[in-house]
C-alpha cells in the first residue's frame, strides 16, 4: 500500500508540475463551437469509435480531459464520475474522458471497478490532436514516471479541463483545474450541476 501511495504521489506530481511552470493558455470558452472529433475509445474494456457529433444527438456531452489513467487525481475523478453516472443519465448527458493513454491502458482503466467501473467511456488522444483543438496544454512523456500499478507511463499529459457541451454543439462551460483551482472531484460536481440546469431549462 505504501509503495502504491508513493507511486501515485510521484505520478501526480509529474502530471501537474508542467502546468504550473509554463504560461497559461486559454482553453476554449463558453459560446465557442466545440471542435468535433472521433476517437478510439474504451467502455468496460471493449474498444469502439466514439463520435462527439453522434453523442450530441442524444443531449449535452461532458468532455473531460485528464493527464493519465492510474494516477492519483485522475483515479479519483474517474471514480467520482462513475459514482454519479446515473445522475448524468437522468440529466440526459453523456460523459467521455480523454487522455493520451493508449487504448490498451484504457481498456484496463475503463473496466476497473475502482475507477471507471465500466460505466462511461474513455478515449485515446495519443497524438494530442483533440486536446490541441480545444487549446489545451500538453506535456511530453517523462521517462521513468510510473503509475499507481508500478507501470511506466509512456505517454504525455493533458491538462485537467472539463468542457460541458450543449446539444447545439456549443461549449456551455469550461472548468479548469489550474485556472479555476478545482480538485478532480470538483469537475464532476460542477459539470453535473450544469447539465442538471440545462435539463431544467435554466441557464448555467
CATH domain fold name: Glutaredoxin
Largest beta-sheet characterization: 7 strands, mixed
- Radius of gyration, rounded? 16 Å
Helix- and strand-based class? alpha+beta
CATH architecture descriptor text: 3-Layer(aba) Sandwich
What coarse outline follows from CA principal-axis ratios? globular
CATH class: Alpha Beta
The SSE string, one letter per element, is HEEHEHHEHEHEEEEHH
List segments where confidence is low: pLDDT < 50 over at least 5 consecutive residues: 1-23
Q: Approximately what portion of the residues adopt beta-strand conformation?
A: 15-25%
Mean pLDDT comes to 91
* Quaternary organisation: single chain
Number of domains: 1
Number of helices: 8
CATH superfamily: Glutaredoxin
| Cα end-to-end separation | 41 Å
- Got a strand count? 9
Q: Which percent bin holds the helix content? A: 25-40%
Report strand order across the widest sheet: 2-1-5-4-3-8-9
Structural description of this entry:
The chain has about 200 residues and is α+β, with helices and mostly antiparallel strands. It has one domain: Glutaredoxin, CATH 3.40.30. The protein is about 40% helix and about 20% strand. It has eight helices and nine strands. The chain has a seven-stranded mixed beta sheet with strand order 2-1-5-4-3-8-9. The protein has a two-stranded antiparallel ribbon with strand order 6-7. A hairpin with a 2-residue loop joins strand 1 and strand 2. The N terminus is likely disordered.
Sequence-ordered SSE layout with sheet pairings:
Elements: H1 2-21, E1 38-43, E2 46-51, H2 52-56, E3 61-65, H3 72-83, H4 85-90, E4 94-99, H5 103-111, E5 122-124, H6 129-133, E6 138-139, E7 157-158, E8 161-165, E9 171-176, H7 177-180, H8 184-199
Parallel strand pairs: 3-4, 4-5
Antiparallel strand pairs: 1-2, 1-5, 3-8, 6-7, 8-9
Helix pairs in contact: 3-8
Amino acid at each position: 500500500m505504501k509503495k502504491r501511495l508513493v507511486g501515485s504521489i510521484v505520478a501526480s506530481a509529474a502530471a501537474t508540475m508542467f502546468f504550473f511552470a509554463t504560461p497559461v493558455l486559454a482553453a476554449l470558452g463558453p459560446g465557442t463551437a466545440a471542435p468535433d472529433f472521433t476517437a478510439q475509445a474504451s467502455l468496460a474494456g471493449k474498444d469502439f469509435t466514439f463520435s462527439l457529433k453522434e453523442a450530441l444527438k442524444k443531449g449535452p456531452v461532458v468532455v473531460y480531459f485528464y493527464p493519465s489513467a492510474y494516477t492519483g487525481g485522475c483515479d479519483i475523478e474517474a471514480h467520482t464520475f462513475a459514482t454519479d453516472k446515473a445522475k448524468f443519465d437522468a440529466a440526459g448527458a453523456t460523459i467521455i474522458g480523454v487522455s493520451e493513454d493508449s487504448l490498451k491502458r484504457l481498456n484496463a482503466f475503463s473496466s476497473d471497478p475502482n475507477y471507471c467501473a465500466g460505466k462511461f467511456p474513455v478515449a485515446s488522444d495519443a497524438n494530442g490532436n483533440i486536446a490541441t483543438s480545444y487549446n489545451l496544454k500538453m506535456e511530453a512523456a517523462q521517462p521513468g514516471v510510473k503509475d499507481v500499478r508500478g507501470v511506466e507511463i509512456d505517454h504525455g499529459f493533458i491538462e485537467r479541463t472539463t468542457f460541458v457541451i450543449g446539444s447545439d454543439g456549443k461549449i456551455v462551460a469550461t472548468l479548469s483545474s489550474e485556472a479555476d483551482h478545482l480538485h478532480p472531484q470538483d469537475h464532476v460536481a460542477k459539470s453535473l450541476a450544469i447539465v442538471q440546469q440545462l435539463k431544467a431549462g435554466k441557464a448555467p
